[in-house]
Structures
1.
Amino acid sequence: MLTKQEIVDKALELGFEDVGFASAEPFAEHKKLLEEKQGEYGWAEALGLKLLKGTDPANSLPGAKSIVVLLENYYKQGFPRWMEGHFGRCYLDDDRVTKDGLSRKIKEFRKFFSEHEIDTKVPFNLPHRAAAARAGLGTFGKNCLLYANRVARGSSFVLPVAVVVDTEFEPDNSTIEYGCPDWCRNACIAACPTRALKGNGTIDPQKCISYLTYLQEDITPLELREPMGINIFGCDRCQEVCPRNAPWFAQDLPLNPKVTAKEEDFELSKLLHMDREYFEKRIWPHMFYISPDDLWKWKMNVARAIGNTCDRGFVPELIKAFRENEDYRVKGMIAWSLGKLGGKEAESFLRDCRSDSSGLVREEIDRALEGEYDKQSLQKGA
Ligand code: SF4
Ligand code: SF4
């Protein structure tokens, strides 16, 4: 019979930061919350994420007895600074498609169980953070993230991996609670640019920039374009302002070689002009939530991010992208960005292409020329 200590040793040997044990009881509270908030989470069910089903581990593994929860620190190595400004850190070294990092470790861990005739499942839809708190690995923040109890300097840069097993292990003491210090004045809630955090430890996921960058179905509403800032895929703002993460941020981390190797592929101008082949080969395997059929979302996000860089050096790139794109959402956002960046070159281009444009693109051009986004932009000249 495999002991808990042997399991812990194996997990640490494979490079996981921490490991804990929880019962495989259904996550009744989580289920209730999801049911009450179908208005906010219904989209996830519609997308086939089956979050409600995931609240009972037995739906994934009949005969489920325990959950062994692993903690992976996904920010152990740093990323190029400019990339951290545009992409959520948890996506920068995401190997769920390439299977060349965390996936290998999970596979090895499961193999270890099967060698001891223990059946396992790693359900994607199980409430991983709740499982980690149940296993005593962390507490919640008011930004709805999990903060480690014993590792990663107590930060939120940990990814829980819940392994459901058909053998019973004694559960660890749970820490299902908020761990935020009294003196924190809810920095995360105040800093959330789109007001997604509701102040009671809950979030409206459809207002979160992470959702907005990959699941929006039309051109980003005007009022969200500035708040979404330079984020292109994901957002880390509520983690960056959190004092619980300050100890981790205080370190000089070695750069992640896998991410630096693909750094050039993610340059904004390359993303703005990429074709389907480039996207499928170089981008999608690392950030896969947006399908190649929705390449317009990437380009629109990049155009909006560029508009928020305050860097007029991008104007020629935007003009080139406007000419090479057919999608009205991309063209509309480029017009917005040109208006936002301002300058004579942007203004002259918008005036030139106005008469050949129609519908939403024409409206965006007119608004840009009227300087509605930034009263000072186009008038600033230069
Ligand atoms: S990730 Fe960004 S948008 Fe989402 S809750 Fe945090 S700060 Fe708000
Ligand atoms: S910013 Fe403050 S309230 Fe928000 S998660 Fe961090 S400690 Fe908690």
2.
Amino acid sequence: MRLGVAGLGRGFMLTAPSILSHPGIALVAAAAPRAETRAAFEARFGGRAHDSVEALCADPLVEAVYIATPHQMHADHVAAAALAGKAVLVEKPLAVSMADGERMVAAAEAAGIAMIVGPSHSFDGPVAQAREIIASGRHGRLRMVQAFNYTDFLYRPRRPEELVTDQGGGVIFSQAVHQIDIVRLLAGGLARSVTAMTGAWDAARPTEGAYAALVDFENGAFANIAYSGYAHFDSDEWMGWVGELGHDKDEAAYGKARRALADVRGAEEEAALKRRRTFGAEDIPPPAPHHEHFGPVIASLEGADLRLSPQGVHVYANTERHFLPAPAWPAPRHGVLERLIGAVRRGERVVQDGNWGLASLELCHAILQSARGGERVPLRHQVAV
Ligand SMILES: NC(=O)c1ccc[n+]([C@@H]2O[C@H](COP(=O)([O-])OP(=O)(O)OC[C@H]3O[C@@H](n4cnc5c(N)ncnc54)[C@H](O)[C@@H]3O)[C@@H](O)[C@H]2O)c1
């Protein structure tokens, strides 16, 4: 499948090892605003780098477009793909506003293009594996999911808008959406309501860095999701020191994110530091040896607890426990790329489509609303797995 990429930033860098190691994908084109990035792309891949997403989508070589531009641009860039009749893999979150998200779903439907929202961690091998175990019914019904993650998210270098909640900044839009996708996939998708609290504890980075939310589902299951991006405890310690992206992590690097940021003077310098971790400035790393993860996740069924790890799923049944290894993939994001090829080439349905992404975005807004108003927020845009 001939893939074009819109936006050669951090998101692309994280997915690139999986794209390059997939035998069924050729990276044929890109769109990037900066001339030096376009030159680097053409030198590295021999494809065609365009100066606009519209030109990328119109490129006859391109069969599908991976939209990895900032959240607030997703709507316009999906509209360009829809106009050109190209399938899209659009990064999470679907959009910042629900209005943009609805516009994207309508545009994709009207154009008859496949739209997948990802890669979110709901595509991770062990999550898909847990979903299959739950769906098999062999341990009874799912009752509860517990998911939490402690990271340094808020102290990684950011563009200014990534620290402004109304513009899609903070951990709700960028991080909660992963946990929401995971727990919705495990619990069947149809969330009913949410009650949440959020924390914005650093005046120098005045957006949400933490949250705790309780989500209940139509089928009676409930999920407890919690997150801190304040760069203190790192829950990768409880994942065998495997990082979110599936690499072995150096525990001696404690405090690295805050230390790197301490030397930065002002928003422009910080944005420049972020650009130093994007394509053209940094090499694409080799594929990670483990599956990706998004912190500890435990799914409680009537007859067993499932604990997800970067290697597979631990099953704690009534009188015995066992471990089911996750499928061996050439790279951690292989699953989402397989789904994309299936949608483009074989017309297969993918769970994490536009309506799914809209439902997860609704939950992001509902978490913020619940935290502001202190109320339980009912949900109206949910879709089933
Ligand atoms: N799934 C994941 O694990 C993951 C990780 C990081 C980022 N992301 C997502 O990727 C998206 C981008 O975030 P990021 O952190 O990579 O930001 P970034 O700033 O590193 O990258 C965005 C890129 O888009 C480019 N861009 C801006 N305007 C453009 C345009 N009009 N046409 C083409 N390219 C344009 C920028 O030059 C930049 O290289 C976000 O939606 C984010 O949520 C996902």
